[in-house]
């Protein structure tokens, strides 16, 4: 079946934009409710339960509140940028969905419809480009508000995002090395099982690229600016950080932007490391469209729906994971945040890329074809490195408990039993 | 029709952004106009089928360098009137002459109707065949890492030297 062309393509693309945009906004609205329920569950309370059944209409009530509240504009604010900042915060997070492959291609009367709004030739470079623009909203808001707290929040936000963008970009290099292509549908196909066509590893990349997936997860979380990386907001120190001076719907847009960013990051991790719309242990969904238009596999409508379900479930599980993190882990200290980005993640990724390159070279030299053996070798290599890394990062703090270092210092690990002054105990 | 419309849109945005960047008094406004100009320029690149260039334009300029500029502008709080920063009359005169000279050269090229073709028809076809077989990124990466590897690595070295220089300058203590 041929890909869509002409008018059918234009109409299909417009429809896809409408459907996926509305779907994204609905998920964003629901995730604000979901977050409170999760918070309630973790803190052993009910969460929203007054408006509508199970409190589900809380979302509507919040929206109404945002619209009806008075809009305050602080004195001395730069009007133009004060207005522009929330828009710049929300737009990049939503347009990222344009290159997300949602489901397997669907056959229609007018040709094969690929379930992606725009299959741009630069694929995830587009993701990096748009993701790097998210910082403008925060910086603009901080600067235009004419407030100390906002300004500090904006500065922190820009430094943090620029730092973690490097780690984010570098953690995508190994994916590129394995796939050999930057297009998003190809990245999904490479994690499936194909006998013919370009390289397919038959394993979701979080297994053969475990360490990369970990770095991407943390760097992606830092890019969303949520706890433990919400230094730009830091309500304990900076009132509300960059959005201190915002009220009503302008604040609402920042709020929506944060959740849109959360869902986008989860979807990106799904595509890059969790096999995208691939359904595990089932070969029926192995459908790919090659560059010359030939289709491998049998696309049908019910497969499209099933794979979309798989994509949505994976994304929502990751969203839940991020929420769980938010209500579990305290905020980073600023210098620790910078250390983690520059002194831990970037060197690790550099070394990792070199080791991976060497491993791929050796595997190619050994004549092992791309497939489960190849992936298996990479999985073993990654497991070793992952264990070493966690052991190194941990330094006896998590496994033995956070107080072990204090006890070691105070009690004397080398048999030093002399009592220590309280000031020496950290 | 469609193409002309989008070209005019992006071209107007790019030129307008560039003009507003030097015309606006507020440094942060200037910077945002420059970002707009970069963005429009990358739109033009997409229309020329130079997708990789368009993406890199946004990643490197709009996403990284401009954010650092913004950071510096905000940190130094450059809010004062800019004409104080300008040099004396002689420097302005030199700038005027150099600027109009460059403008005249570009304008002359445009009005003489000469297409600046760096390569002939056959190499253009070769590039297009390469894009079809290797994709937008591969077509650029392959010559970059084979035929032009040494210049490419030297450029990287140049950037490294610049970074080391910046660190040395920043760490120099006042006597």
Describe this structure in words.
The complex is a heterodimer of chains A (426) and B (175). By secondary structure, chain A is mostly helical. Chain A has one domain (72-412). Chain A is 60% helix and 2% strand. Chain A is built from 14 helices and four strands. In chain A, the strands form two sheets. In chain A, strands 1-2 form a two-stranded antiparallel ribbon. In chain A, strands 3-4 form a two-stranded antiparallel ribbon. In chain A, strand 3 (288-289) and strand 4 form a beta hairpin. Chain A is globular. Residues 412-421 of chain A have low confidence and may be disordered. Chain B has 175 residues and is mainly α. Chain B has three domains: 1-85, Four Helix Bundle (Hemerythrin (Met), subunit A) (Up-down Bundle), CATH 1.20.120.1200; 89-116; 119-175. Chain B is built from six helices and no strands. The relative contact order of chain B is 0.06. Classes of the chains: A mainly alpha (426), B mainly alpha (175). The A-B interface holds A 78, 80-81, 84, 120-122, 125-126, 128-133, 135-136, 139-140, 142-143, 151, 154-155, 158-159, 161-162, 165, 169, 181-183, 291 and B 26, 28-29, 32, 35, 51-52, 54-56, 58-59, 62-64, 67-68, 70-71, 74-75, 132, 135-138.
């Amino acid at each position: 079946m041929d890909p869509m062309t002409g008018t059918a393509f234009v109409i299909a693309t417009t429809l896809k934009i409408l459907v996926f945009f509305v779907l994204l906004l609905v998920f964003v609205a629901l995730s604000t409710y979901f977050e409170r329920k999760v918070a309630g569950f973790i803190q052993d309370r009910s969460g929203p339960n007054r408006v509508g059944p199970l409190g589900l209409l809380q979302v509507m009530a919040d929206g109404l509140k945002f619209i009806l509240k008075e809009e305050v504009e602080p004195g001395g604010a730069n009007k133009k940028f004060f207005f522009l900042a929330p828009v710049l915060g929300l737009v990049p997070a939503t347009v990222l969905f344009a290159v997300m492959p949602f489901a397997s291609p669907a056959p229609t009367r007018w040709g094969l419809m690929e379930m992606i709004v725009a299959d741009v030739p630069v694929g995830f470079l587009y993701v990096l480009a748009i993701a790097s623009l998210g910082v403008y909203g925060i910086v603009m808001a901080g600067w235009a508000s004419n407030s100390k707290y906002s300004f500090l929040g904006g500065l922190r936000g820009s430094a943090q995002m620029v730092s973690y963008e490097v780690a984010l970009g570098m953690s995508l290099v190994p994916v590129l090395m394995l796939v050999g292509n930057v297009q998003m549908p190809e990245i999904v196909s490479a994690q499936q099982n194909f006998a013919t066509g370009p390289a397919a590893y038959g394993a979701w990349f979080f297994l053969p690229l475990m360490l990369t997936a970990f770095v991407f997860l943390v760097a992606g979380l830092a890019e969303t600016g949520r706890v433990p990386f919400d230094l730009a907001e830091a309500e304990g120190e900076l009132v509300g950080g960059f959005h201190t001076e915002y009220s009503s719907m302008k604040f609402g847009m920042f709020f929506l932007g944060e959740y849109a960013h959360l869902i986008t990051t989860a979807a990106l991790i799904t595509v890059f490391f969790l096999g995208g719309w691939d359904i595990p242990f089932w070969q029926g969904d192995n459908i790919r469209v090659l560059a010359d238009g030939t289709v491998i596999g049998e696309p049908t409508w019910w497969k499209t729906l099933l794979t979309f379900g798989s994509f949505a479930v994976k994304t929502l599980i990751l969203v839940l994971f991020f929420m769980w993190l938010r209500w579990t882990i305290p905020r980073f200290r600023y210098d620790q945040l910078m250390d983690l980005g520059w002194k831990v993640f970037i060197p690790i990724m550099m070394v990792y890329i070199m080791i991976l390159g060497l491993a791929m070279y050796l595997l190619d030299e050994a004549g092992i074809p791309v497939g489960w053996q190849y992936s298996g070798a990479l999985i073993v290599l990654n497991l070793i490195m992952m264990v070493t890394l966690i052991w190194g990062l941990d330094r006896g703090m998590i496994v033995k408990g956070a107080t072990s270092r204090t006890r070691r210092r105070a009690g004397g690990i080398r048999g030093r039993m002399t009592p220590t002054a309280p000031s020496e105990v950290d | 029709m469609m193409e002309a419309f989008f070209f005019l849109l992006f071209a107007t945005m790019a030129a307008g952004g560039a003009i507003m960047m030097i015309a606006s008094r507020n440094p942060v406004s200037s910077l945002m106009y420059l970002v707009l100009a970069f963005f429009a320029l990358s739109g033009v690149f997409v229309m020329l089928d130079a997708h990789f260039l368009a993406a890199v334009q946004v990643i490197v300029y709009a996403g990284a360098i401009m954010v650092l500029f913004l950071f510096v502008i905000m940190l130094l709080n450059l809010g004062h009137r800019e004409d104080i920063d300008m040099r004396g009359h002689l420097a302005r005169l030199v700038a005027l002459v150099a600027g109009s000279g460059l403008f005249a050269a570009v304008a002359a090229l445009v009005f003489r109707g000469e297409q600046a073709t760096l390569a002939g028809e056959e190499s253009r076809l070769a590039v297009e065949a390469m894009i079809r077989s290797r994709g937008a990124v591969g077509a650029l990466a392959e010559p970059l890492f084979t035929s032009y590897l040494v210049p490419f690595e030297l450029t990287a070295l140049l950037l490294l030297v610049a970074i080391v220089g910046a660190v040395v300058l920043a760490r120099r203590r006042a006597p």
